[in-house]
Specification:
alpha+beta; 5-stranded mixed beta sheet; 5 helices; 23% strand; Diverse_Substrate_AcTransf; GNAT_dom; acyltransferase
């Protein structure tokens, strides 16, 4: 079963975020809190959305996503920040169902793109996405500012 997250799901989602970060060898980078995630998902102006995969009434996976906008397409899209299914539930169709829900949302709302990033060493995920028909975007390089470099940028003025 796939459903939108509720406030009661926040602790489980935070737990799965920690599990995902450990899998991606980046547990030391996690700073999310239950309070912060709750505000992001259920505050006055939600900035992101979560769908939960359930098995026997328990959360076993999630997607966390937000809206993008393509100037070339002139339409919104979805950026999938995270897709995670707990290891003991992989292979049971939960990942496919979560992705299918995002596809349904795109179709229903007229969104033109569903995009995400995957670590280059994560062969199981790469294979899963390519079986869905996803096309790798090798011509685009990803950049990121965080921490001190982001603070320095904020201090730049004309």
């Amino acid at each position: 079963m796939i459903r939108p997250a509720t406030p009661a799901d926040v602790p489980a989602v935070v737990g799965m975020i920690h599990e995902l970060a450990a899998y991606e060898k980046a547990a030391h980078e996690v700073r999310v809190t239950e309070e912060g995630l709750h505000a992001t998902l259920f505050g006055e102006r939600p900035a992101a959305f979560v769908h939960i995969a359930e098995h026997d009434g328990e959360p076993v996976g999630f997607t966390l996503w937000f809206l993008t906008f393509s100037t070339w397409r002139g339409a919104h899209g979805i950026y999938l920040e995270d897709l995670y299914v707990r290891p003991q539930h992989r292979g049971g169709g939960h990942g496919l169902a979560l992705m299918g829900e995002l596809g349904r949302i795109c179709a229903e709302r007229g969104y033109q793109r569903l995009e995400w990033a995957v670590l280059d060493w994560n062969e199981p995920s790469i294979g899963f996405y390519e079986k869905l028909g996803a096309v790798r975007q090798d011509e685009w390089l990803k950049y990121r500012l965080t921490d001190e470099s982001l603070r320095r940028l904020a201090e730049l003025r004309d």
